[in-house]
Each structure stands twice: as structure tokens, then as C-alpha cells.
Write a structure and sequence with these properties.
The protein is an alpha+beta fold. It has a single domain, classed as Outer membrane efflux proteins (OEP) (Up-down Bundle), CATH 1.20.1600. Helices cover 66% and strands 8% of the residues. The chain is built from eleven helices and seven strands. The protein starts with a strand and ends in an 8-residue tail after the last helix.
């Protein structure tokens, strides 16, 4: 097929004027032609590039957070500000750009090429330049299956981002409950310091009246120093944990955070009932199982992609004659063709078998994810039962220590026991209370782990459908 690139009056655009050679005429036309092509390229390509430019990520909020921050508000702040969620969210944008590239790959790419001969053999009457439009090998089936695979990649990246968010929400819940436990531990340690101070005063008075020894005073003083050191350690732990929470929700170190951790268990757990949680619920919310299923779907497209490689590819283009060619023509010739693979050592056939084998691997992986989730679920249930037993035991010991403390107080008030016995009873009660709320913390963390595993915690804040386009 040929096209005659002439003007409306039928005159050739490069037909020489009287007394002017075709070479000089072409030399004058070439700069104008280059300017026209550059202008067309600027109009057609640059705006398209601007439209397809990758979207820039929204800057993280840096404004100060005023007012008390409870768990629910901390989660919502982290979803907007936390740098820990940024990487996986940007991965979604990258996959969507890859998907857009594949959509445009459905249209064969076209390359324009021109060359100008500064010097040519004498006697040649063809134009001093050549133009060509070419399209490389194009397989429409291969392009279509690639696009479908890119869409699945986008879905996998969305699920991976959702998993990162749910794990972050669980981590934030743990920190809130640990902060509440440290607050209780600080109050308990203040009681121990007060008791140690009273114990020291008691032995110092005994030394003053001549019935005590300096060794007893030294022992009591050492106990007081140990209690104060533990108080400082707890205060330091609270400060470090608060800084970790600030960083996690995207606040700067110099900003002030008014943390509301009162009744942290109620804030984090809400109305979750661990007895009502089921393994089926966990399976339906598991992002790992969903991603394993998407990998199987992706592999189906990989198999089809491998089969499409067996089909011939299309190529085509349009070109003007080479100025060095002896054929004298001012037309542009269009051509199309097929690129048929003849021999490649049966690599494409083996690739189909390879992709089918990988599919079986993904089937096994999906079953393993399901079995692993069941194992994690039963482990979480067992940990919850063990933590519940330890919590009940600690509460019983606390009640026993309270009764003994009451008994020692009655004897001390009646003059039957010295002050040191009463103080030891109080100390035993404070330590039993401390052990009780630590065991309660272990139980609460076990409940939190079960809620996270069941998917109930993530479903409260995360909706994967909101990321679909």
C-alpha cells in the first residue's frame, strides 16, 4: 500500500522550482519539517505525560494535637499521620501506575524515525531524507493477560497494606494497655516507697530508744533505696512508651501528647467477646489467605500469558523510500507482517509446564496458610485460657493478702503485734495487687491477640473496599 504525500493541488511538496535542484529544495524544507515535527511532539506527548504523572503522596500532617488522646483517636491519627503506614500505601500507587502502563500497552507502540543525507551520490533525484513509522512486535493476547495480572498485583498490594494497618492497630492497642499497667504500677510503687520509709523510721526509732541495731537500719535503708530505684525505672518506662506512641501516631518529639489511657482495656477491646469469636470468622478476615488466593488467580494469568507466547506477533509501519535507493518515488509505503517463532528449543512449551507447576505450589501454599491460621487460632485460645487461670490465681492471692493485711492491722491496733508485722502485711498486699494487675495485663493482651486474629479489630477501622477503584 502506498500514500502520495502531495499537496491539495497535486504538486509534490518537494518538486523543484525551475533552476533549483531537488537537493537544495530538500535542504530548505528539512528545517521547517523538523520544527513541525517537534511542535507536534510537544503538543501530543508533553500533555499526555503530565496527565499520567505519578500522583504525589499527600504530606503527613504535622499540626499539634490538642486535647486528650484516647485509643480510638490515636488510631485515627495514626491512619492519617503515621509514617509506618506510608510505605505500603505508596506501593499501591506504584502498582496502579503499573496497571495504567499495561492499559496503554493494549495499543501498539509507534516509533517515528527520520534521517537526512547531507551528501548523496550525484544523479539521485529522490528526496534527501526519509521518514518512517514503525511498530514493534505486538501480541494483543499477551498485552491483555499482562493487564489482568497487573490488576491482581494491585489487589495484593491493597491487602498487604490492610494487613500492615491491622498489625499497627494491634501494636498501638498493646502500647495503650501497657501504659495503663505502668500507671497502676507507678501508683503501687509509691505505696511501696511509703511503706519502706515507714519501715526505716520504725527501726531508726528502735535504735534511738536502745532496742534496735544499726544492721536493721541499714537493711531498711537499702530496701527504701531499692523501692525508689524501681519507682524511677517505672517512670522512665512510662516516658519511653509515651514517646513510642507519639512517634507511631506521627507526632514530632517536641510536641506534647495528652494521653488518655484510663480503662485502656475497655477502650481497646470495646464489646469484643472472646467466647463468641470463631475460626471461620478469622478465615474470612485473614489477609494472608486472601493474598494466597489472589496469587493463585495471578498464576492463572501467567499460564495464559505463557500460552500466548506461542502465537505469532504483529508488526507494521510506513516508510518513504531510502534516498540511496535507485527506485524513484515520492510515496509512503505501508507494510504489515507476522513474526512467527520457528525454533527456540521448546522453551515456550516448557514455560507452560513450569507455570502450571508453580500453580500447584500456590495451591499448597494456600492450604498451608489455612492450616497455619488454624494452628495460630488454637494457640491463641490456649494462651487465653492459661492467662485466665493465672489471672484468677493472682486475684485469689490478692484477696488472701488483703485478709492477712487486715488481720495484721487488727493485731497491731490491739497491741498484739509490732508495727513491723503490720507493715510487712501491707507490703505483701501491695505486691499481690501488683502481681494481679500484671497477670490481668497478660490476659488482656491475650484477648487482644485473639481479637486481632479473628479480624474483628481490623474490621473496626479498615475497609478494603474503600481502596478499590
Amino acid at each position: 500500500m502506498k500514500i502520495n504525500p502531495q499537496g491539495a493541488a497535486g504538486r509534490s511538496l518537494t518538486r523543484p522550482r525551475p533552476g533549483e535542484s531537488s537537493g537544495r529544495r530538500g535542504e530548505k524544507i528539512l528545517p521547517a519539517l523538523i520544527v513541525i515535527l517537534l511542535a507536534a511532539w510537544s503538543v501530543a506527548v508533553l500533555p499526555a505525560q503530565g496527565q499520567e504523572a505519578p500522583p504525589t503522596a499527600a504530606p503527613l500532617e504535622t499540626e499539634a494535637v490538642t486535647g486528650p488522646v484516647n485509643y480510638d483517636r490515636a488510631v485515627r491519627l495514626a491512619l492519617r499521620r503515621s509514617p509506618y503506614f506510608t510505605k505500603s500505601s505508596l506501593e499501591i500507587e506504584i502498582k496502579r501506575l503499573d496497571e495504567t502502563d499495561s492499559k496503554f500497552d493494549l495499543i501498539p507502540p509507534i516509533t517515528f524515525r527520520t534521517q537526512y543525507y547531507v551528501s548523496r551520490p550525484s544523479g539521485t533525484t529522490n528526496r534527501p531524507y526519509s521518514l518512517s513509522f514503525t511498530s514493534n512486535n505486538y501480541n494483543p493476547f499477551e498485552s491483555y493477560f499482562t493487564l489482568q495480572a497487573k490488576k491482581v498485583f494491585t489487589q495484593i498490594s491493597i491487602l498487604a497494606h490492610m494487613q500492615v494497618i491491622t498489625e499497627g492497630i494491634q501494636k498501638l492497642g498493646r502500647m495503650f494497655m501497657e501504659m495503663d499497667a505502668l500507671k497502676q504500677a507507678a501508683a503501687s510503687q509509691e505505696d511501696l516507697v511509703d511503706l519502706a520509709q515507714k519501715n526505716l523510721d520504725y527501726f531508726q526509732n528502735r535504735v534511738r530508744i536502745g532496742v534496735g541495731t544499726s544492721l536493721e537500719v541499714r537493711v531498711a535503708a537499702q530496701e527504701l533505696e531499692g523501692a525508689k530505684a524501681e519507682r524511677e525505672r517505672i517512670a522512665s518506662s512510662r516516658k519511653r512508651l509515651q514517646e513510642r506512641i507519639k512517634v507511631f501516631i506521627g507526632m514530632k518529639p517536641e510536641q506534647t501528647l495528652d494521653l488518655d489511657c484510663k480503662e485502656a482495656r475497655r477502650q481497646v477491646m470495646g464489646g469484643f467477646d472472646p467466647a463468641a469469636a470463631t475460626l471461620e470468622q478469622a478465615r474470612s478476615h485473614s489477609y494472608e489467605i486472601k493474598m494466597a488466593e489472589l496469587k493463585k488467580e495471578l498464576q492463572k494469568y501467567n499460564i495464559l500469558f505463557a500460552k500466548a507466547k506461542l502465537l505469532p506477533s504483529l508488526f507494521g509501519g510506513a516508510t518513504t523510500p531510502d534516498p540511496l535507493n535507485t527506485i524513484e518515488s515520492r510515496d509512503m509505503f505501508v507494510y504489515i507482517g507476522l513474526d512467527v517463532p520457528v525454533w527456540d528449543g521448546f522453551k515456550r512449551l516448557r514455560n507452560i509446564s513450569r507455570q502450571k507447576t508453580i500453580m500447584r505450589q500456590y495451591d499448597v501454599e494456600s492450604d498451608m496458610k489455612t492450616n497455619d491460621l488454624a494452628g495460630k487460632w488454637f494457640d491463641a485460645q490456649e494462651n487465653l485460657r492459661a492467662a485466665d487461670v493465672a489471672r484468677k490465681t493472682a486475684l485469689a492471692q490478692e484477696e488472701l493478702a488483703r485478709l492477712k493485711e487486715r488481720q495484721g492491722e487488727i493485731r497491731y491496733r490491739s497491741g498484739g503485734e509490732p508495727l513491723v508485722v503490720f507493715l510487712e502485711g501491707r507490703k505483701g498486699l501491695v505486691e499481690a495487687q501488683r502481681n494481679a494487675f500484671l497477670k490481668t495485663l497478660d490476659y488482656d493482651l491475650a484477648v487482644l491477640g485473639l481479637r486481632h486474629l479473628s479480624g474483628d479489630l481490623g474490621a473496626r477501622y479498615v475497609d478494603a473496599n474503600s481502596w478499590q477503584q
